[in-house]
Amino acid sequence: MRADKRLGTGVLRVTTHEVFTEYLAAMARFAHLRTLAVEVVRAMRRDPSVYVISPSLEMFDRGLGRYENRPDKNYSLVDCISMVVMEEEGIHEILTNDHHFEQEGFTILIRK
Predict the structure, then answer these.
(1) What is the pLDDT of residues 21-56, one digit of tens each?
(2) If you ran DSSP here, which 8-state letter would residue 16 be given?
(3) Which CATH number goes with the domain that contains 60?
(4) Positive or negative CA dihedral for 81, 87, 91, 94?
(5) Which is deepest, 10, 44, 75, 82, by most CB within 10 Å?
(6) What residue spans of 1-112 are helical by DSSP H?
(7) pTM (2 decimals)?
């Protein structure tokens, strides 16, 4: 079942635990932001309007397949997993400035 059917109408916010992991890893080097980063993740996990997709071996394998099949790209594994999730959920727009998603046909909503 797609996320829009699970969450109903309105703004659809979907993320994955892999994205949270990547975000927390990026914040780890900023000691003064670690507590805030944890609070952000916890708040998003509690927010009923945010659909958080848990990792699965199948999703990992599908992301790994994309990672393997794009040797000419600098996509991270988390990017690849996110792209797989977006395709599965019928999501076409992403709140990022990462041009890799545009290379795969998604619309990025933040411009550098």
Answers:
(1) 999 999 999 999 999 999 999 999 999 989 999 999
(2) E
(3) 3.40.50.1010
(4) positive
(5) 82
(6) 3-7, 17-27, 34-46, 57-69, 77-89, 99-103
(7) 0.83
pLDDT digits (tens, 9 = 90+) for 92-105: 999 998 999 999 99
DSSP state letters, 60-86: HHHHHHHHHH-TTS---HHHHHHHHHH
Which residues does residue 28 pair with via DSSP β-bridges, in sequence order? Answer: none
Number of structural domains (the chain) is 1
CB-based contacts of 20, cutoff 8 Å, min separation 6 = 41, 44, 45, 52
Residues in the chain: 112
Question: What is the token pair recorded at 43?
Answer: 């708040």
Q: Which amino acid is at 20?
A: F
d(CA 6, CA 72): 36
